[in-house]
Amino acid sequence: METLVEEAVTEALREEGGEAIRLYVSACTERMAPLFVSLRASAPGREADLDFYAECVRDLWYADRPLADAAERVGLLERFPELQPDEEGITDVADTYAFFAVLCLRYALLAHNSGSADDAVSCGHAALTAMGLLDQNVAGASLLAEEQRLQSLSLSGDASGLWDTSVTAGRERFRAVLSRLPR
Q1: Is-contact 23 62, C-beta < 8 A?
Q2: Which of residues 55 and 2 earns the better pLDDT score?
Q3: Alpha helix stretches (DSSP H) within 6-158
Q4: Among 123, 130, 122, which residue's Cα sits nearest to residue 146?
Q5: Do the Cβ atoms of 27 and 163 come closer than 8 Å?
Q6: Rounded to 5 degrees, what are φ and ψ at 121?
Q7: Closest CA to 24 of 9, 45, 34, 35
Q8: Residue 52 and residue 179: Cα distance in Å, rounded?
Q9: How far apart are CA 22 and CA 107, in angstroms?
Q10: 103-118: b (≥16 Cβ within 10 Å) or e
């Protein structure tokens, strides 16, 4: 499968492994988190899913060690409606970006646990795909290029600056998606 993740990022993930992979997927997921949390905040019966999602994103930032229960978390996440097959597919704007946010978290949890560069690249690919879609649908947006820049930056090893940058980028993404929602 061809991926949107830049070759230099993929190579760095393969070479550095471990903590670099965990920091990379943590940052990708942090940037995508507002899309799930904000788009599902008013959905009835999703309170536990929102709490679980937020807890997973928080725990991913413990990049110095794998999550002991990552496989169990992946199993719970795979029960989310966003990852359940649907005959009609995903056509709604909110559903599209919530799907990519959950998919990003799924791969992040897998990569965080296994140290697999392939899972990390899949995590990054999900974020890049979502940003590419936003670029196509929001006039003047350059979110794909910004995500590529942030993915490269996430390999720098500065967790505190990366977290701040990722939180800010996540908010900007949510505002862009919000502009696409029907009023």
Answers
A1: no
A2: 55
A3: 7-16, 18-40, 47-60, 70-77, 93-114, 117-137, 143-153
A4: 130
A5: yes
A6: -65, -40
A7: 9
A8: 27
A9: 11
A10: bbbbbbbbbbbebbbb
Band (177; pLDDT cuts 50, 70, 90): very high
Tally Cβ neighbours within 10 Å of residue 176. Answer: 18
CA angle 27, 65, 50 (to 5 degrees): 50
Q: Tokens 């009835």 label which residue?
A: 44
Q: Give the model confidence (pLDDT) of 112-123 as tens digits.
A: 999 999 999 999
Work out the average pLDDT over 48-75: 95
**pLDDT category of residue 1 using cuts at 50, 70 and 90:** low
Work out the burial of residue 150: count CB atoms within 10 Å of its CB; fewer than 13 is exposed, 13-18 middle, 19 or more buried.
buried
pLDDT value of position 89 = 80
Share of the chain above pLDDT 70, in %: 98
Q: Is 32:99 a contact under the CB 8 Å cutoff?
A: no
Please name the helix (run of DSSP H) or strand (run of DSSP E) that holds residue 162, with its range, or none. helix 159-178
Q: Are 78 and 106 in contact (CB under 8 A)?
A: yes
Mean pLDDT of the chain: 93
Structure tokens, 57 = 């994103």
Write out the two tokens for 83. Answer: 């990852």
The model carries a pTM of 0.94
At residue 102, the pLDDT reads 98
Whether 124 and 29 have beta carbons less than 8 Å apart is answered as: no
